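Exercise 7. Predict the joint structure of the components listed below.
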Amino acid sequence: MQYPFKCGRIRRLTSYYPVTKGVNMSLEKFFSPQSVAIVGASQKKGKVGYEILTSMVKGGYEGKIFPVNHKTSEIEGLKCYLDLKAIGEVPDLVLIIVPARFVADIMQQCVRVGVKSVVIITAGFKEVGSEGLRMEQQVVQIAKQGGIRFVGPNCLGVMDTASKLNASFGGDLPVQGGIGYLSQSGALLAAILDMANANGIGFSSLVSIGNKADVDELDMIVAMGEDPKTRVIAGYLESITDGELFVRKAEQISNEKPILLIKSGGTTAGAKAASSHTGSLAGGDTAYECVFERAGIIRCNSIEQQFSFAQAFANQPLPKGNNVAVITNAGGPGIMAADAIERAGLGFAKLTDETVEKLTSQLPPAANVLNPIDVLGDALAKPYEFALEVALDDPNVDIALVLLTPQAMTECKETAEAIVRISKKKTEKPILVCFMGANKVASALKVLREGKIPQYNSAESAVSTIRVMTDYLRWKNRPKRVVRLFPVNRRKVENVIDRHLRQGLREVGEADAKEVLEAYGFMTPKGSIATNAEQAVNIAQQIGYPVVMKIWSPDIVHKSDVGGVKVGLNNAREVMDAFDLMMYRIPMKVPDAYILGVLVQQMCKSGLEVILGMNRDPRFGPMMMFGMGGTMVEVLKDVSFYLAPLTADEAKQMLINTRTYKMLQGVRGQEGVDIDAIAEGLQRLSQLVTEFPQIKEMDINPFVVGREGVVPIAVDARMSVEKD
Amino acid sequence: MQYPFKCGRIRRLTSYYPVTKGVNMSLEKFFSPQSVAIVGASQKKGKVGYEILTSMVKGGYEGKIFPVNHKTSEIEGLKCYLDLKAIGEVPDLVLIIVPARFVADIMQQCVRVGVKSVVIITAGFKEVGSEGLRMEQQVVQIAKQGGIRFVGPNCLGVMDTASKLNASFGGDLPVQGGIGYLSQSGALLAAILDMANANGIGFSSLVSIGNKADVDELDMIVAMGEDPKTRVIAGYLESITDGELFVRKAEQISNEKPILLIKSGGTTAGAKAASSHTGSLAGGDTAYECVFERAGIIRCNSIEQQFSFAQAFANQPLPKGNNVAVITNAGGPGIMAADAIERAGLGFAKLTDETVEKLTSQLPPAANVLNPIDVLGDALAKPYEFALEVALDDPNVDIALVLLTPQAMTECKETAEAIVRISKKKTEKPILVCFMGANKVASALKVLREGKIPQYNSAESAVSTIRVMTDYLRWKNRPKRVVRLFPVNRRKVENVIDRHLRQGLREVGEADAKEVLEAYGFMTPKGSIATNAEQAVNIAQQIGYPVVMKIWSPDIVHKSDVGGVKVGLNNAREVMDAFDLMMYRIPMKVPDAYILGVLVQQMCKSGLEVILGMNRDPRFGPMMMFGMGGTMVEVLKDVSFYLAPLTADEAKQMLINTRTYKMLQGVRGQEGVDIDAIAEGLQRLSQLVTEFPQIKEMDINPFVVGREGVVPIAVDARMSVEKD
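Solution:
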């Protein structure tokens, strides 16, 4: 059963999206307009209004261009119009380059004329302060009412190679290719473009999304997802507008094509005072890590890395597995590639006997016919071609990595041509190439580029690209996400939460938190509150020794810090002593605390302590946490996070993702614990926090688990709520 | 007191080295010969003998060139000689390019004529099998007797830019610079040369060391260490000839100039059956990691990375600290740099109020005058120059990183010139640069290159270079290594080892191992061997309960695996039961074991269990290990290694290097343990294994440590010995 996303926040967001989409669902006109009006076109060199106009012309755009400028009648041979109305037809796309204070007026004109798609290049809005923000909001208002979608303001513009549209001042239109790029930094986009043009990297489209006042990163990712010319979506982001929607849509799109994102500003976490363990362990970047993992997004740390990856995804098929065959004409680079493959956790293909025989029959006797296949330093193009073809025919080989060092006899260009030939013949398996050197391999690199063979400067970067390809493959082949729904008592939880919210209480006490957990199927230890020492002994005798005693007060959150927890009490004397000591000492330490009594509770004698938790991210919703308990979490911070709602697989994967997972399986003599029971606990907690968005943070600590079949116990719990 | 390296192996190696050195200590003639003879010079294009001759001429070598070839009288206008003797003078350097079978003869000729320095280019020796190895050994023999040092065979040759010597067929002579490069792979060297020449990277010298039959990697590193033109030594190695000597010499040289090495073939560890914990935890690469750490060598994973680092070391001063100031003309790249700096654990410079004021006074109001300093997208060269100079004047700034994206107004080339100007004025602090893009920044990159400003393709690679520079700085400033010598009873250890070696025993039993440890100042638990149950009870009563009992047999190494260990025995009944059960069960499990009795031993009730260990690497000698005990070592493999002999600092650092170091300091309520006592244990063990090279492996497991002032106890120990 697919999880129905019943709860408030998600429902609100799903219903929000179609409102805008309904007006003008497709962003197609931004990429293949039949006509473009340039409002603010200029005849002065150096002015953006001139640069964009000439970019359009130079790029070879074949639609109609309507420069709009009331001060002149002609620019660069093109007739100039007084205003949009004077054009006499409705342009598919309008670029606005006039000063910020005039932009609202032009947008009004657009509405009147019936324009549907606009790019606002002009800067000086939100990014310069409150007056700019006001103007930006005004523009948004006009556009929304007029049913217009717009990119920007404060952006470089839009490029689309198929329609030869260069509606930007970012640089020359690049060659056609499979990469769609969106950037929240215009300057970065210009640098990327310069780099890409120098290296012949092809794009489907490039978009500078600027201030994202209307069209945002997700709109663009969706549009590129729908565009058949885009094989891989890449981008640079500093923020994500609508977190939960982003996760869902990006996950859908990742199933079709890879998304490679740089998300900057991750490490400097906003210092948020968190009262829970989970909250304090989640770094500022944890949410993004979770989101990217869930949505299958490949996170990149630099532009270099991003284009290393993008090249391969855009031009090569996905591998079927992770076994790499290396073909080289020098031993050293072959060993370096083998090292990198082992470090990356990839497989080193074991060639079949048949392959080894074939290679032996044709390669010189000194050649290494095992993997890495060393065709020797004097190899011409032929042995390379032969070895590559034979390797790709081997069923044990999923990916081929060809290394070449330019030696005296090496036919660099011919070898490149041979590789391109083979790649056209064997289209099922990816081929990556590293031709070392520069001048000697320059013409070969050109051949490879034109033949759509991704080329790397080092075996290492080729191997890390292969690793990312296999990671993506694994993600794509993941089992269908089925979130289990447990039968629960929602009414009981509603009551607890409502009561706290009515009373303006944020922190939910242990007893109430446990009532909530019981309503969701958790087992909690037996116990009751004692208000005097005799009562404590009676309760202990009913439960059976040993018992735990905990001070009971809504004002004391960290009980053990004030001496409010005693464990392992074995008889009546110890229980009485503990009670009286707490009553004597704690009021001295926390004089203002209102003390209700002491909880006398069953002690879980054996079992391993773990933590289950949740921290609600303001953008992305509930993040589940699993962690090893006790000193492990203190010392190693051995925890893992994942976005709720969790499937059974995801819950189990959270356990596996901790460094001390083996502790759960049992080590040397120690029995393992019931792993499925922990995973179920995580799923139940995930259901709880998904169904109640008012729950902001939650810890079950410790969650004591025993061997298989033993029901785990939520020994202590903490929870905080807020109005949704 | 400096450790005197008294023990056998090290002494042997120190005395070996000067023998060769005495003959011809300096390798100077390889780099600045006044005359070079080329034996095997050819007039046929494409032949190596022709390529090298023309390389020499084309490179502009100003000394005398003597081609030697008995078949011709002139090559390319140079007079050709019948043989070496016919030259009539002794050439400083002889290159041998004749077929392998003639090489020994030529070497004989060299001896007769009085040549001292030879490069054997010819391949077909050790690398092709046993016949080649025989020929190689013959050549070595002749050279040694004749007092000749030679590079090769099977190499590309030698290049030296100052003397314009290109005695190689690797490619064109590169420009002069501060990088000395040695490579065990000729093909890789050729590729590096091609790449370097295309990017204008300067070298002092490049050497292809080939089969290293005489001159090896260490000789070359020493020679480059002595060469004032070499500012940084870089290389690619597949093996190290003489491990312990390498460590000592490389450490000396690293004090003067950085050594950047790629060591390949590290990950595929030779599967060595190890009987100790320490041995099984030391991976194939652990020894190299230890060696590189001790010797201050910077390990690189790829050529790209190596040249990223080398560029900075060769051309910029070392920073004084790790605080980076970033100057940028775009927000996005600035944030990416800030992220990278935080991830790399570097400091983000906090500018002084004075700096902020100065920047405010001159930069436009919208500019960001905090770090990263954003001079804004329309900044010309001037504001860049101003901001860089002000930043470098700030005492809180140790390193400047300048980022540039080519935008409409950007003066790329002028900005580069400004940076070079500032760098010449402020020579104290390193400047690293990342100009993004390609064609638009090409002329700027040329200016930077000529101005010796290292340039990176991404902020990430600049930042990882800065990280490596600060790591090297920290290594250079490390405290002087002083190895403490404890008063010990060496005689007692000699006796134990001699007895075992005489009897042909490899494994030393627990009792003897403990005797050895006691001789080196370790405390071991009280206890004796019982041969019947009553005796066991008597011993237990003398020691005091609780006790531990362990089966006592030279044939049983893993006692607990056969039920041969019982802990926490509290009374006579339990001791008797344990004794009888062992006597009944163990002979059934290991029928052939010779059982001497059962050890009844004091039980260390409290304290933390750790492991001290040693594994002797065949190349580099004793590697010390420290690890957390119990499940930590099973699950996390939380261990650290370091080369013996250890200083107090190094021993302590080994503890700090474990992931669970905090456990030793004490966490939440648990008291910390005596960290100095553990460090002393490591130092004592280090002294033991340094003084007795016959000890091959050793474990003290567990080593039980208590709070400060409590003497730790070596509860169990294992040791194996071999004839040295």
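Discussion. Chain B has four domains: 9-264, 317-476, 491-602, 608-721.
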